[in-house]
Design goal:
This protein has about 375 residues and is α+β, with helices and mostly antiparallel strands. It is built from eight helices and twelve strands. The strands form three sheets. The chain has an eight-stranded mixed sheet, sandwiched between helices. The termini are far apart.
Length: about 375
């Protein structure tokens, strides 16, 4: 039998070890200058991202969506809700926060020339990444500034196959596994699940009963093109969709005969996934601007990062209910031409007589 003192020491070591694992995050004050990451925040973001409580782009910096993801995760687990610097989550599952990735020759097939105008984009067969750093940023859910900082003094503009780069240790977004599928298969057991979207908080949640399965940041519409509140239903989920670019739809919500059909690709305006709702023209989708999620406005839809929308698609199915809460679109002002008063209307002026033979027939 073990000596009681040995047992007490063993328990003490266990308690100390647990305390070390769940100690509060260390956030320096003042923060280091951007884009230098804070290690404890970087680990927390990787942890939350891995558990599908998206902090937005991983950058190792404190921010709105890291805080919201943390608080939603704590609430789901029944833990005390805290600020970033006071959390006691066990982040040991993260392992090393920074790993390495070797750029492969086959990665280059997803990188190429990307025109800026829809008219030119419509003539291509695929809308690729415009650089390897954009490819890496999306693959590892992070900001390009973080990759540049981690790999200084390596020049990101000259990356090539064989180069080894440091990246965050997240579940990589694998663009090479996505093929064009017009409608993903239905999963009947997912039908009771509900997507709840709060456009004020810019958050999307997937619920199974009262349990929150995933929480992701979104960019909703606003103003005249605000995302319409209400209870909707998923009509279908398309992987690697094309996009009908119509300026009239984007600005006024009305279809016109002047449009461009844009091909699939990570830089398609709706990204790599379209989750259509039974509200014409409205859906949840990916984006070609993953760095701006939650920080700008859409044209009525709800967009989220490509690395998030592909994981969201694995939790949902056609026919699911989507509840959107938030402000309704504001009416566009009706511009009515102001009628001029009688005394404001100038009298008609007599035209000058034309030269030539018609002058003989001019009447005064």
């Amino acid at each position: 039998m073990k000596h009681p003192l040995f047992i007490s020491v063993t328990r003490l070591v266990s308690v100390l070890a647990l305390a070390c694992v769940s100690a509060s995050a260390v956030i320096p004050d003042p923060l280091p200058p951007a884009p230098e990451p804070v290690e404890d925040i970087l680990r927390l973001q990787i942890f939350l991202d891995t558990h599908l409580f998206g902090p937005g782009k991983v950058d190792g910096r404190p921010g709105e969506f890291t805080t919201k993801a943390l608080k939603r995760y704590q609430t789901t687990l029944g833990l005390p809700v805290t600020e970033i610097g006071d959390h006691t989550l066990d982040l040991s599952s993260v392992g090393e926060s920074i790993i390495t990735y070797t750029i492969r020759p086959e990665d280059l097939q997803y990188v190429g020339h990307l025109p800026t105008q829809p008219s030119a984009q419509s003539k291509k067969k695929y809308l690729p990444y415009d650089s390897l750093i954009e490819f890496l940023s999306e693959r590892f859910h992070c900001s390009p500034e973080l990759i540049e900082f981690l790999n200084h003094p390596m020049k990101m503009g000259t990356l090539k196959p064989g180069d080894v780069v440091k990246v965050p240790n997240v579940q990589p977004f694998l663009i090479e596994e996505l093929t064009q599928i017009a409608s993903l298969p239905e999963i009947p057991e997912y039908l009771p699940r509900i997507i709840k979207i709060d456009t004020r908080e810019k958050l999307l949640g997937v619920y199974e009963g009262e349990k929150l399965l995933a929480s992701l940041p979104i960019t909703p519409g606003s103003g005249h093109l605000a995302t319409p509140p209400g209870t909707w239903r998923i009509l279908g989920i398309a992987q690697m969709p094309t996009f009908r670019w119509d300026k009239s739809v984007l600005e006024y919500g009305v279809r016109s005969g002047s449009y461009y059909n844009l091909p699939m690709g990570p830089n398609n305006p709706v990204g790599v996934m379209w989750i259509g709702l039974n509200k014409p023209g409205i859906g949840i989708h990916g984006t070609n601007q993953g760095q701006t999620i939650g920080r700008s406005a859409s044209h009525g839809c709800m967009r989220t990062a490509n690395w998030d929308v592909v994981r969201l698609a694995k939790l949902i199915t056609k026919g699911m209910t989507v509840i959107i809460e938030g402000p309704a679109p504001t009416p566009r002002p009706v511009i009515v031409a102001k009628a001029k008063k009688a005394d404001e209307i100038p009298p008609p002026s007599n035209p000058e007589p034309k030269r030539g033979f018609k002058l003989l027939f001019w009447k005064k």
